[in-house]
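hey team, just a heads up i'm posting the complex here instead of the shared drive bc the drive is being weird again. everything in one block, sequence lines first with there labels, then the predicted structure for the whole assembly after. its two chains so it's a bit long, scroll down
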Amino acid sequence: MGRKRDIFIAALVLLAVWQVFALLLNSMALPQPWAVLVDLGSKLADGSLIDDLAVSSMRALAGIALALAAAVPLGLIVGAEDHIGKRVSPFIYLLYPIPHVVLLPLIIILFGIGNFSKIFLIALIVFFQILVTTRDGARSIHRNYFHSIKTLGATRLQMYRHLILPATLPKIMTAMRISVGTSVAILFFVESFATTTGLGYIIMDSWGRADYISLYTGISSMALLGFTLYLILDRIEQHVCRWMSDH
Amino acid sequence: MITVSSVSLSFTHDGQIQSVLDDISFEIEAHDSCAIIGPSGCGKTSLLFLLAGILQPDSGTLTITGNPRCGTILQNYGLFPWKTVAENIGLGLTLKKAEKTKTRQVVAQLLEEMELDGFDTHFPGQLSGGMQQRVALARALAIDPEILYMDEPLSSLDALTRERLQNLILDIVHKRKITAVLVTHSIEEAVFLGKKIIILSRRPARILKVVGNPGAVSPDYRQSDQFFHQCIRLRELLKGEINGQEA
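-- predicted structure starts here --
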């Protein structure tokens, strides 16, 4: 596979750049990559990193899943049903640009400092990204497709299943890609306080202890998490949007 | 029998009401074929959309005796790019919740009839224009229609493919005793496929003339003197309309 090889080469180039900067800077704040990789490997092998990786993955995945389950149906309906779209879109217009991160205090007051607050904040932020993209995707379906399925006698529900959802899927997948990046970033934010688990905690804790190798192990793990989610998405996209890649 | 009496239609564009069809009346006998021809943008497609039930007239009535099954082939965007050839052809039956074995049987038969064997798992985007039109035809035929509506079904094809598909349509319409309504801007196509030819004026469309064309029943008609005379006659009638538009 040419693509896999290209990604591998790109990873090597990035490691080389890191190495060069580490040597040039010669600072504790930027350890050399091999030291971090050894630390990462040993922590993965002895299992001390596994729990944090699992907790962080769970939070990110649960947040994305929650957002997806709410945003996709709503986005499809708002995009495809003109009369509903007209009523709901002004609310989206007003609520979307708010930096939802600032709602964290409110979320903690409502849901406490446990896992759910963290998942909820990720879900809330990602929700709007998926909602807006899904709505715009559903809205831009050419009306001839609707004519076509109407002449075949489709019910409204069948239109969602055979036309509106599949036509919007590529846009939803794009929204998911953006969401993966966002959710990992939010993950760091929500794990940087009121918790003693997760990769975000490891980064903050190592920073506090001035353990820079451990700090970079945390950062690398987060990158690894984001990359793995990306790979999973690629697989899903290849499966559900087969018609787009097979040309 | 299809009876259209005093049908008018208008659209609202930028707050202005534009009349599209003005007092249209005609009849099409069962098992007959009718071609509707007129200058581009005159409202031919709108008239076909009215017949197919996609649009509703502002005034006048449209009666179709019995409750016939109708198949429709639209100009573009008729096929769903995210469904395979087999899924596209079987869609009408799927939507009507027909038995899966029956759907599979009908699809297999049509794949053979349309010379699409081996392409059942392809997506429309992987096929040539002529093949896509054969899939569209197969999809319309899958529900065993008594009436077949066609909107410029062959407009984007090269001359030879076009003639081949015209022969195929003629053959199918006769064999299956289908009432065929064809919208086209091609004079030759109208004369070859329509036993009755309705000539529309420029927008707002009125009926200029209804021409009987009893020869349009055999593929040999294309080579006859009668065919050429009909084409010349139609061209004269349409020329006046198009010149009027430019003036």
